[in-house]
């Protein structure tokens, strides 16, 4: 097998380069499946080796939240120590019970953490975020989602508490952001909590009974994860797409120069779908909000 | 619309167009069809790798 045939069409048969043949595409598919399986195995066998390490600042998140509120003519929310503690307790519990949700598998509710830290709210709300690289990205993602935006720009809130906690979730190191809002102002009706755009009435017996919560214990994590699976997959994917597009263009130019017509699949269609994939990859972000 | 939904729509258009184009052209062979299907599969796996 001649080396140049991997990259250029065959000089006699005009067969397309090996690296853009269907056999090669099948190998790429298998390799990428293997990569994802490998990430899952490593995450399971060595938790914390893989993950995303963000540079998120708690104070900056509060500042950016207030900037967004002020843009809408709303009063700023003030940092509250009890809500900060509630957010920290919630984040720690998410790592301990290994879940990504507003309600814990053990039955703990968002208001358990808020009431447990001594904040007697009449109206409260919670926003969550994980796998973001910066504070701006977190607030932008919340603002882009209708339900999170409504929570962030709710005029009823007076106080805010935020925790940015690093830990291992589902085998991968991540930075969790928990944002708690609240007000203690007397409002008509029963206490409410706004979660994912849904207002939940807090049962009065739960409201009056302060839940017992263990203090958040910060387990220091040693250094950054060895590999960011998101960046690795993204770079590898973009590299493969670029290689395939270059080879398709080379195939087109060479066959045109040779004056050869070959019955084959459309290079333009292939380049178009690869272009859509590249654009999707370039605009992607590993961050998730809840 | 979410990027993943846009990509799935693009893949469907790509496959439907490929079959329509090659049938009209009378050039639809198993190898050609397989190339389109495999490339669509590859694109989907590359994107799912970062979204899931």
What is the compact description of this entry?
Chain A has 290 residues and is of the alpha/beta class.
Largest sheet of chain A: 7 strands, mixed
Mean pLDDT of chain B, to the nearest integer, reads: 90
- In the predicted model, the low-confidence regions of chain B spanning at least 5 consecutive residues are none
Q: Give the helix tally of chain B.
A: 2
Number of domains of chain A: 2
Label the structural class of chain A: alpha/beta
Write the H/E string of chain B, N to C.
HH
- Distance between termini of chain B? 17 Å
Structural domain count of chain B: 1
pLDDT averaged over residues of chain A: 88
Radius of gyration of chain A: 26 Å
Instruction: Return Rg of chain B in Å.
Output: 13 Å
Domain SCP (chain A): 63-168
Protein name (chain A): SCP domain-containing protein
Pfam families (chain A): CAP (PF00188)
InterPro entries (chain A): CAP_dom, CAP_sf
Output the keywords.
heterodimer; A: 290 residues; alpha/beta; Pathogenesis-related Protein p14a; seven-stranded mixed beta sheet; 15% strand; elongated; B: 52 residues; mainly alpha; CAP_sf (chain A); membrane (chain A)
Task: Furnish the topology, listing elements before pairings.
The complex is a heterodimer of chains A (290) and B (52).
Chain A: H1 22-45, H2 58-71, E1 78-79, H3 81-97, H4 110-116, E2 123-130, H5 135-144, H6 146-152, E3 159-169, E4 172-183, E5 192-195, E6 198-201, H7 204-208, H8 229-258, H9 267-282, E7 288-289
Helix pairs in contact in A: 2-5, 3-4, 8-9
Chain B: H1 3-24, H2 30-51
Transmembrane segments (chain B): 6-21, 28-51
Keywords (chain B): Membrane, Transmembrane, Transmembrane helix
Transmembrane segments (chain A): 20-45, 236-255, 267-284
